[in-house]
Amino acid sequence: MKIALLRQAPLLMLPALFPLQLMAADNASNTMVVSAAPAGTGLSELDTPAAVSVVSGEDMRHAAPRVNLSENLASVPGMQIQNRQNYAQDLQISVRGFGSRSTFGLRGIRLYVDGIPATMPDGQGQTSNIDIGSIDHVEVLRGPFSALYGNSSGGVINVETQTGQQPTTLEASTWYGSYGSWRNSVKASGATGDGTHAGDVNYTVSASRFTTHGYRDHSSAEKNLGNAKLGVRIDDVSTLTLLFNSVHVDAQDPGGLTEAQWKDNPRQVASNVTLYNARKTVDQTQAGLHYQRQMSENDDLSVMMYAGERETTQYQSIPASAQINTKGHPGGVISLARHYQGIDTRWTHRDTVFTLPVTLTAGLDYETMTEKRKGYQNFTTSNGVTDYGVQGDMRRNERNLMWNLDPYLQTAWQFTDKWSLDAGVRLSTVNFDSNDYYVTSSDPDDSGNRRYHRWLPAASLKYAIDNSWNAYVSAGRGFETPTLNELSYRSADQSGLNLNLKPATSDTVELGTKKRIGNGLITAAVFQTDTKNEIVSDSSYEGRTSYKNAGETRRRGLELGLDQEFGYDWHLKAAWTLLDARYRSNACGTESCDGNRIPGIARNMAYAGLAYAPDQGWYAGGDVRYMSDIAADDENDVKAPSYTVFGLNSGYKWLVQNWTLDLFGRVDNLFDRTYVGSVIVNESNGRYYEPAPGRNYSVGLTVSYAFQ
């Protein structure tokens, strides 16, 4: 894909050593440029001394449904991203194996959208509020420097939406796919002036609606999404950006299948899923304000503030007998109301020390979340008649508060033309406080609190072999606290909070190299991550899962990536990941798991995609994806088989005066392979498998008009 030159206005920056903001494209090399400190300066993806991949919004939307983040990120080495065909549980994403145990949403990795965390202070996140139609680029950071983003940062995904520019453009897009899937969207973007004069304004506003009957029974969903970004230049040295996002999701939950059920009919669901009408509803609205000011020739100030609320209601397929008889059971209906807010203030100074160029950044990040959590029985009984799938008696009522306060410091030193050093440290403090308002004779007061502290250092030394070839070595420490859900239950039938859980601490060492070859980039990285107190599933008892610390684990891996343009209109992307993730101590209770593979993680992943994509006229492309087998439980007794799937797409793009029309069609799983798309780790009823669709088809049309 061609990458358009972007206007170099100040952009959002994240609170870490490598904010990785895409600034421009080098026309000579097509190497995307990312900035490490103030806007207007930058390091290329080649020069950044860390494992980082950047995918443009154009690539994300090319011949794609524009519904899920998983559609066009398979080319990123080290990231395992899977569509579970279950919009009640979100995508399943892990980076270098972190996040693989998550039963819903994101876990173990940090996600940002326009600088606002989509990961809460406890480390749990979600992707439902991302509008692919307005993405400018997606950055994926892996390795030691991920730790500088704080709690639960085994990897970092940063999504930046488009900044409006001239001319004013209106766009309408529609897509139709198999299983009754529709997506309709509209977008408007533009600007007054070029962004360099006081009073210049830019804007991007978008809205979309997605509906599907779902590949499996009881898997229909709908999602309404709105996104807005408004920027204004206040004066010659300062800008202000307003951000708004809102999403509504209503989805049925098909759950998992046993191996026998999957082989018999992968589209079916367990009988209790429909009996209790398992489903989830989510409503989230958030707003942000980002102020940037150039204080002097060598000093910059950045202040990011945001606030939002998220309400979730989930009906689970838990047997009524368990909801009634189990001590302290929270019931089969979860009702959550979360209010979150935060502020990140950062100052950057550029200077010289003993004639050496130095950049120093100091900042303070504060986030807080208040949660009202209630639980109800998922049934009612009246006159001896029981109705299932409806809210019944209350079984839980508590208020939870989590906050983190993280000061951080980072430096960049240029020793010579060949050698440079980047280093940083973050002191992360995470506090959890719970007040229990549901107290009975059989369910005592379970209030409690816990606080976690960790110093998170990271450093990288880079050597420039020549202008097109760099090598680096880096090391860092990260940590991962228990989420609110992991703290909520103790093992077996014990009531109360699981306050004995400790945060997991990881030490990573990485060696990497990057080489520009013509109009492309080839990357390679080898790494080892040792983790202490890894948080894993302890037991699943009568519909609820408790967690424990598993001792030690080790992840060793090799990542190779290629992004190459040739013949002007041809584009090749390829990636291969080898990841050996194993327990180094017993995590299975009575049985030893020492040496077993960590479940949910593929040992081998490979991707190759070739596209012919001129600026206008016919285009076509194809891709192949391979995933090795994945263990589903700690004992490694159950595994999802390996698979290879192919996809094809083709379309035609018309450019007629001010109009652009893009019509495409695609087919996925071309050879109708039957395979498991994802697994539910340590599922107590043996329903580990979440099947993927067979051969499926879709068509899409995008029409835009530029007012010139």
Structural features, described:
With 708 residues, this protein is mostly beta strands. It has 5 helices and 42 strands. The strands form 9 sheets. It has a 22-stranded antiparallel beta barrel. The chain has a 5-stranded mixed beta sheet with strand order 4-11-12-8-9. Mean pLDDT is 88; it is low at 1-43.
For the structure shown, list the relevant keywords.
57% strand; 708 residues; 4% helix; globular; mainly beta; 22-stranded antiparallel β-barrel
Percentage of residues in helical conformation: under 10%
Number of helices: 5
By helix and strand content, what is the structural category?
A: mainly beta
Quick check: average pLDDT? 88
Residue stretches low in confidence (pLDDT < 50, at least 5 long) are 1-43
**What is the terminal-to-terminal distance?**
24 Å
Q: In one word, what is the shape?
A: globular
